[in-house]
Amino acid sequence: MPPLIEVANLVKEFRAFDRQEGLRGAIANLFHRKYRTVRAVDRIDFRIAAGEMVGYIGPNGAGKSTTVKMLTGILMPTGGEIRSNGFHPFEQRTTYTRTIGVVFGQRTQLWWDIAVAESFRLLKSIYGVTDSDYDARMKRFDEVLEIGRYLRTPVRKLSLGERMRCDVAAALLHNPPILFLDEPTIGLDIVAKERIREFLKEQNRQQGTTVLLTTHDLADIEELCARLMVIDKGVLLFDGPLAELKRRLWREMAVRFQLRDREQAEKLMAATLPGVTMQRSGDLTVRAKFDRERQTSADVIRGVLALAAVMDIAIEEESIEDVVKEIYTGTSLREPVA
Length: 338
Fold this sequence. Notes:
Layout: E1 5-18, H1 22-31, E2 34-48, E3 53-57, H2 64-71, E4 79-84, H3 93-96, E5 100-104, H4 116-127, H5 131-145, H6 160-171, E6 178-182, H7 190-207, E7 210-214, H8 218-224, E8 227-232, E9 235-241, H9 242-249, E10 252-259, H10 262-270, E11 276-282, E12 285-291, H11 297-305, E13 310-316, H12 320-328
Parallel strand pairs: 3-7, 3-8, 5-6, 6-7
Antiparallel strand pairs: 1-2, 1-4, 8-9, 10-12, 10-13, 11-12
Helix pairs in contact: 6-7
């Protein structure tokens, strides 16, 4: 089956104006301006199959939102090609946008001064949603997102969490096959985030909606996405399962041992196991750190059990936050992955 979204050698460049400082610089800017070309997206390639939920992450300025704006037809690529749901997004924008849903976390598609229900009715008319489909979808939106209580409230009077629930529902009112989410949970409390995540999972299960999600909330990725793409400085560094990303970056692993008594803990701290570093993390707790590429946790556990009396064992999993922090702070994904 061909991919639902296909991106090949995609490039987006912007022309940036370098302002000179001070009064003299301001006067000079009136007569002579210096421009430079900034490449926000640099020859990226990826394919997304129907029904996938894909996370798209990177530091601020990495090129995430620029990519999404090209995929939704808002921006025209400088080079390369996009094929999404059978359309070229920018060239066929009017027809194409009727087949996608989009949520930008800091912008709303609802009308600010009218009641939420009126915005939904306007969208129903714009997208040609039948009365029966509209009623069924609004019922489902209320069951999962609990938006019924907000329908008579003007959008400007909603809290951020309430507005985001309504925005997600509005983006899916016409049941599009593709949903683009750009920071959909930014600034939300835990309850609002969980509501939106549960709704998106149910939408994907029941309707097969394909989702591309950009976020700085890594819990969104762990909850929703089996596949992760990492972009930085316009270059796609990684495209694959989260577990593979951890394998490539998470070289060090730890097993935590709860010892029978203090004597056993001290005995373990004084012992030597090749390639293992012992760390005391409590009176009766010792962490054994090792390179997971060179030995397994089972090897370390067998070695420790031969040295000391152990009451409990826990393998410590590194969080996605730790893995992505390494990327953002410059720890290499050694080779970009197309």
